[in-house]
Design goal:
Elements (H helix, E strand, L loop, with lengths): L13 E4 L6 H15 L3 E6 L5 H14 L3 E7 L2 H10 L4 E4 L8 E8 L3 E2 L6 H14 L11 E3 L3 H10 L9 E6 L5 H8 L5 E6 L21 H10 L3 E5 L6 E4 L5 E2 L1 H15 L5 E5 L5 H8 L3 E5 L3 H11 L3 E3 L5 E3 L8 H13 L5 H6 L5 E2 L3 E4 L3 H12 L6 E3 L4 E4 L3 E7 L5 E8 L2 H15 L2
Parallel strand pairs: 2-3, 2-4, 3-7, 8-9, 8-10, 13-14, 13-15
Antiparallel strand pairs: 1-5, 4-5, 5-6, 10-11, 11-12, 15-16, 17-22, 18-22, 19-20, 20-21, 21-22
């Protein structure tokens, strides 16, 4: 009977419960299908600290080698470390992780040579089709000469590459609390931060894919509480929180207050523009703050607005030659990192910016955090289309208001905007609102929520 991968193969990756939804036998078929679809003669693989990751990763390598591809296993790594290997070694890659999902989940993030993403429209649909067919009819015919499987440590090279992209020579001593959430930040942070004038206060650096302390998902405010308290206790200059596969980074200031990822996007954008002579395109998705395009324009750059989601950001980065891109989910993309996302490089920029002046982080980021935002508010609905139509009807033809459909529905006025997007996987509508003052933001937020939840 063919495997049903409809709940496992997502828009950008593979993700599901192990072994209920997928297992090592399917991982082996994914490895073979990856080689068949990409035409690769050699690939790189890496994995996070989840209990199921080493076995799944090795099974994938076996499947790839059976079809003749040489496999370089970089072993334990963060997702952006796998992207580094793909770029630096010029190889397609596969990263075994379920990012911030609970322990029973695992997944595969795949990329072509140079960290170019593999999603539904760029090979993932074909990979799924092959795996489903082979699971019913048997594994594909092996190559006459199987590929080899060898190990390679890329951690120090990855760290050196990141440090080469940020000038850290003149920073003052800083005290930094880092919450790795028992994820891969505990593996990469000590190497990346080595030699910098930092007093590092580690939290939950022990690699443990069962996440005994809290979920490795800093997007949920509940998972930042420990870090916030520790920053205040230590009198630290800032705190950093990484998700499970350490490709996203969240920042907490010296007061223990979270710094908006939009403010980090604007800060890094200004620094990257300065690095490139005050010229360049900066990508931002449509739920980032108004601050981002304003700061980009003020610093000589060209802001380009995109849909939410890494495949859209990376495609636009490649199309426009953008030097940097940021999302409000704390994904940060760099042209000098093969257009891939790396929260670690964004963290280095924050350290360089803070350490290059004498003031506290809260004062530094205030210039990049100009408006009142709601954050993302999810509402469960029975009919996404009907609720969106109701919102459109409420605001259409109002004087001074514009509507656009780039991603969901965005409604804009002179002093506020909001966006409502349907989830692709759940019966949810996601609201983000922003205004020039907190009172207006609250009024607009509550008005839209009443329509959504009516």
């Amino acid at each position: 009977m063919a495997a049903d991968l409809s709940q496992v193969v997502k828009a950008y990756d593979v993700r599901g419960v192990v072994p209920d939804q997928w297992d090592e036998s399917l991982a082996e078929l994914f490895g073979a299908a990856f080689v068949r679809v990409t035409g690769a003669s050699a690939i790189a693989t890496g994995h996070d600290m989840r209990p199921s990751s080493p076995g799944l990763s090795r099974a994938f390598a076996r499947g790839a080698a059976a079809l003749g591809a040489d496999v370089t296993e970089i072993g334990l790594c963060s997702t952006d470390q796998l992207y580094y290997a793909s770029g630096a070694l010029n190889l397609p890659g596969a990263m075994f992780t379920a990012s911030h999902n609970p322990a029973q989940y695992n997944g595969i993030k795949m990329c072509r040579t140079g960290a170019a993403p593999v999603g539904q429209d760029t090979g993932l649909a074909e990979i799924r089709e092959l795996v489903e067919r082979w699971s019913e009819s048997g594994a594909p015919e092996p190559a006459a000469t199987p590929g080899t499987i060898t190990g390679r440590d890329t951690l120090s090279d990855y760290a050196a590459h990141l440090r080469s992209l940020v000038d850290l020579t003149a920073i003052r001593p800083l005290k930094v609390v880092v919450d790795a959430g028992n994820g891969m930040g505990g593996h990469t942070v000590p190497e990346v931060f080595a030699g910098l004038p930092l007093t590092l206060v580690p939290m939950y650096f022990e690699l443990d894919g069962t996440f005994p302390n809290h979920e490795a998902n800093p997007l949920d405010p509940a998972n930042l509480v420990d870090l916030q308290e520790r920053v205040r206790e230590e009198g630290a200059d800032l705190g950093l929180a990484f998700d499970g596969d350490a490709d996203r980074c969240f920042v907490v200031d010296e007061r223990g207050e979270p710094v908006s990822p939009s403010a980090i996007t604007a800060l890094v954008a200004s620094r990257e523009l300065a690095r490139h002579g005050g010229k360049g395109t900066i990508i931002h998705n449509l739920i980032t703050s108004w601050s981002v395009p304003e700061v980009v324009a003020e610093n000589g750059g060209i802001p380009v607005r995109t849909r939410v989601g890494h495949s859209f950001i990376k495609a636009e980065m490649a199309r426009s030659g953008a030097i940097f891109g940021g999302e409000h989910s704390a994904h940060y993309y760099f042209r000098d990192f093969w257009n891939a996302d790396t929260g670690m490089l964004a963290a280095l920029h924050v350290l360089a910016a803070l350490g290059g002046q004498s003031g506290p982080l809260s004062a530094l980021v205030a210039q990049y955090d100009r408006y009142a935002g709601s954050g993302e508010i999810n509402s469960t609905v029975t009919d996404q289309t009907a609720r969106l139509a109701a919102i459109r009807s409420a605001y259409d033809n109002r004087e001074g208001i514009t509507l656009d459909d780039l991603d969901g529905l965005t409604v804009s006025a002179t002093d506020w905007w909001f966006n409502v997007r349907p989830s692709n996987t759940e019966p949810l509508l996601r609201l983000n609102a922003e205004a020039r003052d907190p009172e207006t933001m609250a009024r607009v937020r509550d008005e839209v929520l009443r329509i959504i939840r009516d």
